[in-house]
Every structure is written in C-alpha cells, then in structure tokens.
Amino acid sequence: MHEVDVPTGYILLVTSSWVDLMRNKLLIAILTAIGLAVRLTLAPFTGHGWDMYVWLKSGELFTYTSYNIYEISDIAGFPWGFYAYPPLWLYWLAAAQALRALLGLEIHLHVFLIKLPIILADVITGLLLYRLGKKLALEEKTCVTMYALFILNPLVIFISSVWGMFDSVATLFVILSLLLLTTGHECMSLFSLGVGAAVKIYPALFFPALLIYLHENKKPIREVLIKGSAMFFSPLIISSLPYLSSPGPYLSKIFFHISNVGQFNIWTLIKPFLSVEWISIISTSLLVFLYGYFILKNLKNFSKSGFQLRLFTGLLIIFLATSMKVNVQYMVWLIPLLLIDIATKKGRSREDVISYIIINTVGLVFIAAFGQFISFDLTSLGRVKSVVVSENFIAGGLILTSSAIAGWRFILMMLDHLNLTNVKKVMMGKVGISLLLILFILSLSLFPSPAGIELPQSKVRIAVLESAHSVFTDGKTYLDFDEVDRLGRPNIIVLPFSIDFFNLYDRYDPELSLNKYMKFRIDTSELKASDLRRIVSNLKNEGIRVTLGVFIAPEQRLVSYGIHGYSADWLINNHPEVLRDGKIQFGEYINESGVETRYSTFVAKKIRDIVMDFGFDGVYILTEPEGIRTVKDLEALLPLLVDVRKEVGDDKVLFIDRVDPFLSAPALRETLNHVDYLVIHTSPWIDGMLYGTRANRTIETYQLRIRQLKNELPRDVWPKLLYTVYTLDMTNGWLTPALEVQLEVDSYSGLLESGYAVYYASNYLPYRLKLRAS
Asked: pTM for the full model?
C-alpha cells in the first residue's frame, strides 16, 4: 500500500501543479486580453492636446523637411516645449508618418499607430515584472497579482493609451535591465539601460549606481568603467549620430526638462515664491547629495541578494522627492518598481501599500483636474487652454492638492529608503504637517479667484492680443458672449502684425496668408486676409472697435514648432539703413523703385491702405515689451506718428503704447500732440522680472510719477493717458500673478480714469478678466 501511495501522491502533486500552472497562464492571458482591449479601444480617439500634436508635427518635419528637430526654437516660458527627447522615439514617429502616407491612414489610425509601441511596452513590462518575480522565487499568486496591478492599472492605461506619452517604452528597458542583472547578465543589463536612455533620458539615473554595484560585486574597476560605459552609451551615441555634428542644440533639448518646474511634486507649492534658477540649484544639490548619501550608506548591502531592486527603487524615489521636474506620467516609472519592492519585502510593508494607493489615487485626481485645461480630444490638437491653473478654482485646487500629497508622499518614502526614521517622525509630526499646510495655503492664495481679475468700467478698455491666432483659431472669426466676457469685455481690440506685413502689402487678396506676420501661433490652422476681414467685421458688429496693431521692432522670423512668428526679413535684407542699434529709425530715407522716400511715409501709406481695405477703426503702434524708454526712442518713432495721423485722418483713433512715464513732461506733451491716447508703462512686476535697471520701482513709485505728470501736463491731455495691465506673454515667457494684476489695476484706476490696455488678452490666460459691475 505504501509503495503504491508514493507514485500516486507524486502524480497528484504534478497534476495539481500543472493545473495551477495552466490556470495561472490562462489568467495571465485573460488579464492581457482585457488590458489590451481597453488600451486598443481608447488609443485611436484620444491624445494629449500638446504632446500628440508634437508627435505628429515632429514626424512630419523629420520626414518632409530639412529641419533639424533639435534646432527648432521653443516659446520661452512655455512649459512643454517641442520635441525634447533622445532620437529613438523620433525615428518611430517618422516611420509612423511614412506608413501613414504609404497606407493613406486618416488621423485616428495614425494616432493609433504612434501609440502601438507604447501599448505593447505596457504588456511586455507587465510580463517582465511577472518573470522577475518568478526569478526572485516569489509565489505564483504574488507574481500574477503584480502583473494584474500593472496591466490593469488605470493610471498606466491612461498615460499610455489616452495621453500617448511613451514613458512605458523606457520603463520596459529599465525592468528588463533589472531582470538581466538578477540573472547575472550584467553587460546586457547595462546595454538595456542604455537603450532605455536612448528613448527617454531618465534610465541614465541608474547608470552610476549600477557601475558601483558591479564593482562592489567583485567586478574589476577597469572592466566596469570601460566595458560598462561602452555598453550603456553605445545605444545613445549610435542613435544620436545624425545630430552630434551640432551638439549644442541637441544637448539643450535633451536637458530642456530641467529648465522648468514640473507639476507633480512639492516644488509645485514652492515655485510661486522662488525663481526657477534658485529651485534648480536647491533641487539639484539635494538630488546629488542624497544620491551619494544613499550609495555610501548602502555599500555594505550591495553584495546582498536582491539588493539591486532596492537600489533602483530607492534612487528613483530620491529623484521624485528632490527633482524640480516631476510630472504625473513619471508614475509609470515608479509603479512597477514599487510593486516588486512591496512583493519582496518581508511582511509586505503596510506603509508601502499605502504609498502605492495614494500615488495612484492622486495621479488620477490630477489627470481628471488637468483635463479641464488640456484637452485629450484629437479635435483639439495643438491647442492649449492654459499653461497653469485657470479661473476654474476647483480644478486648480485639485491639481495643487494632488501635487502636494504626491510630493509629500515621495519625501516620506525617500526618508524610509534613507533610514532617516527620526527625520520622518518630525516630518509626519506637527512641524512637518504645519509646514506643508502653510505652503499649501500660501500657494492657494496666489490662485485667481473664480471671479477672476476685476477691471473697472473705464471709457477705454483695450485688449491687446498676442496675435489674432491667440483668440481666433481653426477658421473661427467671431467671439461669443462668454469669450468676450472672459477677456474683460473690452471695447477696443488690437490685432497686431509684424512690420513686414505693412512693408509688403500691395492690395487686398482674400487668399493672402498672414501667418508669418503674427508673433504667436500654436495650432495648425491658417489665417487668411479674408478671415481677418471677417474678424474685424464681426467684432465691430458686436460693438467692439478694432485697431490695427503695428509692431515696430525689427524682429526676424521665428521658427517655433515648425511655425513662423514675426517676420521682418524684407526690412532687414533690403533696407538695413533704417536700422540702428536694433531699432527702426522712421525718419531715415529709403530708395524704393527708384524713389527716395522717408520710411515713415512709406509705411504710413501701407498702414492707411490696410486700415481702409479691412475696415479697421484705428492704429495701435505696438512697441517692444521694454517700450519707449529714452528720448532717442521717441525721436525715432515720432515721424511715424506724424505720417500715420496724416494718412489715416482724424476720424481714426491712434495709440502709442508702453511709454516710460519717467520721460520728461515736454517729450510726453510733444507725443500727445500726435496721438489720441498714450499708454504708459506702469508695472513694477514686469520691471523686476525682466529689466534689472527698473527693478527698484514700485506701485507707489508709479503712483507718485502719475501725480507729478498730472501737475506738469495740461488738464486737457489727462484723459489721453492710459495705464498698462500685464497678464501673460506666451512667446517671451512671463506671467503676472493674479493678485499682482489686481493690485496694480486697483492702484492706478483712480489716477488714470480714462482706461487701460491689457497685455495680452488671449485664450491662454490662466485667469478670467472680468468687467467690474457698476
């Protein structure tokens, strides 16, 4: 009986194990099918409004033009930039573009094709995670659970298949690197890490630590440095070869993301109070110090079995806790490492499980709130509703709250990995919690209120657009009631164009493209002369006067995201004699068609023709942001004012903007003789941020000067003086906080009662401009 039971028991055990194995394989197949089905269903119809636009545009530019993607200039201050990653992903975008052309794919299938490697990377990462668990002798149930928690994770699904961000591809090679390291394939582990860095640079974070790890595990230092470096850097160098002939632009784009603060860590609370430069210095110093501290503190553990998992997880958490550039999509890096870290810890740390739940929850909350500002609809590609929070206070508050909670959790997790339990107790106690609440409340106080910024019901309420394209996109030629209301119900709108629009204007041509004459464009639509005429007509029908903005700085074409900005090529190439120290001298003469003509007269006649052809109500002379600061600046411009007044007549309103009020009263009086309104510069915030020489001015300084001017100038010219309201400049990259704008408005409205000019009213304002009830 006993002899019979042994093989029977063995057969039963083998059969049971085989059934369990088949059951687990079937379960993994089902989980894979569900994960793929969800991703493939969502992928063709969704995409981050800006990132997906960049993927499409980058593939197009790479395939059909000679542009070096890394030499395309960024819009200063714009937080996302253009293509700023290593080239491997770019090559896939180009391949997808070529396949689209070859197969005649429409936009949805093109987007689906772009996302396909990301979706496959999700699945493969999950399977590698399962395989890694098996190599570490984890229970089958645990390995399957890890796979399920990754492949069905809503945050991972959204970032890969809805957003279309390719972090999963780089993460795949990090997890593969860990698996190879665990199985003793050190060189291939470094190579896998290098491939990951050639996709997205973050896997380079682990490279120095991995070299030290190999050396501590008895690998000769020479072999580690030479062979290890060769294996890691070869994928990045080979893929980058086409761009290494001009390394400057390439490297500046690769490191673009360390030039601005992210949206999903503790620095989000601090950035209103510190400059980016200071945050960069502090965060980088903390990262380097704590990275080194973690390595030195754990040197004795490097030879322990399985420590490579804790090494990778610890370093990534230190990065997330200290780096100023952390975004919600980076959670795709953390989630698999956190899962394997939880699974391999004895006792399954309750704290780590809580961290996993919190990070996923606040990540989803962040994305839900973020969707109020950035569309994930393919019909909105290339359009950005706001660079920061808008007047949607609830969504803005949720973004700030989720970022604060995530950042705080990263810090607590980091202290755990650094074994700084005493510091953690302090941070979780009254002192730490109080500090977090103070930062949160102070940051929240800088948010605009739901009502927005209240503007007075002055006689003159000017909205200076950054360009027609900052409000009118995709062929739209009108503003509805809510859009006008959000811009503060202006009664004058300025549509600005570069000086070459006037230099080159001949006659009205409805098909004439005006794109290259505009300072600011993000989306891909085209503004034609016929569109501009309809815009002017529709605004006038709404009771809004429309003035022609003449930007008088000789700024050359800007290749930004493959789109042209201001163009002054004609003037610079044909008549450099009118330029002096980077400014136009309108009193100089040019020889055009064999006739000597004063340049101011030449331009004024073109301005007159455009005013008549398009139906403008007047002319707004638009200077550079620093404005008219000296008497010489004024003397260079006066001939244009005189000639424009003569050409357009007294029935058209004429403005000159951003004149420094500290110019002498006689100089200002002379200017006022030729214009209907003079907009004086009145913003100490802009002074301090952009111009060091004027940084010592305050609101009180400007108030005092306005009072002095009213004493020095005749009473009948007082109504001609307007003040400036600076909000946001996307191109030059500055934003005035809502509280500062409101303070300046309230400070000047009682002194200059005629009105104000808002720079720049647009769809991208992060707060509402609201006309105050009478």
From this structure: 0.68
